[in-house]
Amino acid sequence: MTRIDPITAAVIQGALENIAIEMGHKLMRMSYSSIIRESEDFGAALTDATGRQMCECKMSTPLQSGPIPGYIQNVIQVLAQRNDPVRPGDVIMHNDPYGGASHGPDVAFCVPVFVNDNLIGWSVTTAHHLDIGALSPGSCGIVDAVDTYAEGLQFKAIKVIDQGRRIEPVWQILRDNIRASDLVVGDMEAQIEAARIGAARFVALVKANGLATVTAAFEDLMDYSERLMRDAIRALPDGDYTATTYLDGYLDDPDPTRRDLPLVVTLRVRGDTLAVDLTGTAPQLPDKPVNMPLIGTVDCAVWLTIRSILLDSVTYGAIPQNSGLTRPISIIAPRGCLANPIFPAPVIARFCSGNQLADTVMKALAQVVPHQVSAGIGNLRVVAISGLNEGNHWVHMEIMEGSYGGRFGMDGMDAVDTLYANTRNNPVEDIESHIPLRVERYELREDRIAPGQWRGGIGTIREFTFLDDAGFSLEGDGHAYRPWGFDGGATGHVASLTLQTADGSERALPSKVPYFKVKAGDRLISCGPCGAGYGDPLLRDPDAVASDVADGLIPAGTALRDFAVVLRDGAVDTKATDAARRSRG
């Protein structure tokens, strides 16, 4: 039932979205670290008083904005258990990975929004911080934490500002227990100011339009988003659709239970509802942090993938991003599996696991909407690099791109963050101007295209030279399992990681590397995975193959071997190509 006229609802929607976007821009401009300023690894959103999402910043990563409702719902619960009231002027810090947060380094600052002493909503920013006091420097690549206590400081609905007054002991704990604390605490203060801006804009919107009007518009917008999702699900044939992919796990571990870990997704379509059943997924690793929190990681991976595929913005345009989209979707995850671990199982390295889960959801959906999915993705990797300068820590975090598989009518995207990550690359100039590191190579891998009617995307080669003694840790995946090809397309290419020492020796590394010391002159070479192909390679447009050859992505011999395309002086020999393709059937 419509509560408000559609024009007013559209105006309110636009205003809410602009508030979230402004919060994001202000946070980026005020931040100290490149992971927020350049990579955009942050979130910004408004919720109602109960934690239902009203809007989110479109340029932030889904893995940051998506969990915000879970943050708020747990904050409300924890404060109620403490009998700790929420008052105007409060700012609450929260990063509990078992309380809505995706993992400990993703810290939220929550500003309650009041009008006439009535709580009407929350303005929230989240961001990935360079360090949170874990067992080794940095906040990624912590692949050997034995439990959540080893993953760094945990803040469960802690007030850092109480009715406008800073709680200085909390800020002192942060400064005393976090490496590179000037950067990290500076980013946190930027988050607070950005959230306060969002709260002020929200109050102004309510005062201009009235709380009843804004509330009615929000309820209608949620109902509208829900209707769109239900209609998209209803268009699918009822049935169960199952897919399995695998995580590397710990390839160098002698314990077989810690490697080759299955992720199993069964989509159960019934009318206008969709249940995502993860039964069959590997058991949790009780002392390795690749487990995924159900709320904050698994739910976001599932929701993002389903929403992106069934309600593609190219077809549907801008859709209000709010909690209505998730109402028709339920998630079943057996307690104690990788996708629903039991506290205190560690979770800090859940990034690649969750991205692979999203890819598995897409593989299951490929059975019913084949023209709306891509073939298998090349997963990402994250490296933390750190060192000491006269007793002071410097820390840098780098998200290294993966690639998409081909999709119906389009080649896979090269060198891009995939699925729920959606962060930007870090400019070489920014890296080299802030830390003792030189980027020797940053380029696409050559002759690593996965053949298909629409080829797979290409991963990157990143080569770093350490200019001072330092250390690094890295979490990644995709060294053991190739991305899945679709409808005759070839599987993609795996990743690799190599350390070349200054004395000339070379060492292959697995996809997960705990803190590892390096010397000045050592080099780290990362070859990212390449996405899979979609469709029969013999149906690929010969001119597209010739273009890849001209761009130096593949040699002419590969064009003939993989696509049966014959080139003469760089141009397609149509007659010879037709003959070559006929000979292969």
Distance between the termini: 58 Å
Whole-angstrom Rg: 24 Å
- Total number of helices: 14
Based on Cα principal axes, name the global outline: globular
Your description of this structure?
With 585 residues, the protein is an alpha+beta fold. Among the domains are: 6-224, no CATH class; 374-540, no CATH class. It is built from 14 helices and 22 strands. It has helices at residues 6-30, 34-37, 62-65, 68-82, 168-177, 181-209, 211-234, 294-310, 313-316, 351-365, 428-434, 542-550, 556-563, 574-583, and strands at 42-48, 53-56, 91-94, 106-115, 118-128, 158-162, 165-166, 239-249, 259-270, 273-277, 329-332, 381-389, 392-400, 437-444, 460-466, 470-476, 496-500, 506-509, 512-518, 523-527, 567-568, 571-572. The strands form five sheets. A seven-stranded antiparallel β-sheet has the order 2-1-5-4-3-6-7, sandwiched between helices.
Please supply descriptive tags for the structure shown above.
14 helices, 585 residues, alpha+beta
In short:
By secondary structure, this protein is α+β, with helices and mostly antiparallel strands. The chain is built from 14 helices and 22 strands. β9 (259-270) and β10 (273-277) form a beta hairpin.
